[in-house]
Amino acid sequence: MVRSHNKKMLRKLNRPVAISEATNVRSRPNVESEDEQLEKQVLLCKGQQIMLTTNIWTKAGLINGALGEVVDIVYQYGSKPLDISAYVITRINNYIGPSWNPTYPKVVPITPISLGNRKQIPLKMAWAITVHKSQGLTLQKATIDIGAIERQGLTFTAMSRVKTLDSLHIETGFSFERYCKMHNSPYTIIRKQEEARLQQRSL
After folding, report:
1. pLDDT tens, residue by residue, 40-54
2. Per-residue burial over 5-30, b = 16 or more CB atoms within 10 Å of its CB, e = otherwise
3. pTM for this structure?
4. In the chain, count of helices (H) and strands (E)?
5. Is the dihedral of CA 124, 129, 132, 133 positive or negative?
6. Torsions phi, psi of 19, nearest 5?
7. Alpha helices (H) in 15-153, listed in sequence order
8. Domain range annotation of the chain
9. Which contacts qualify for 101-106: CB closer than 8 Å, 24 or more apart?
10. pLDDT tens for each residue of 134-145
């Protein structure tokens, strides 16, 4: 569903799309988990919503999961189709580092990196993201689809990404019985106990 929605939104931009194919930089065993932080293929387009897929500069807000937008794509002279771009100029929402362009303080270039066996631009499309990828994010507003099957903790994670109920839209409704199961789940009980403990400490 995430891939389908992202590709649908990409087509709506009606702009040329660059394809960045990852390259293998070395032969090392047991680094598949590192490889997965970099996409095998990245689609890039001006105006595209993107997410960083690894930590680049945590103090400046360039962290795994940071959201933003593609401003421009820059290639080295003589590059061919499917080559990795020299850098992608992005506008990262939470970037607080030095201004690359004083007129646009949140604009920053993202260059290719190497992780495990793979070299790639550490970006992915992010009009839609999975609940797992949303952990730790605070969004101004969100539309969520929690699916038909309750998975412990995921519904709470999805619904707690926004600060107010006015900022939340639930794509598919759910029954009162499912709400009761969520409300009484061990995960929710533990969370409530922790919130009560923190509130007591703040008094």
Report:
1. 999 999 999 999 999
2. ebeebbeeeeeeebebebeeeeeeee
3. 0.78
4. 6, 12
5. positive
6. -110, 120
7. 32-35, 131-134
8. 2-125, 131-202
9. 104/71, 106/68
10. 887 888 888 888
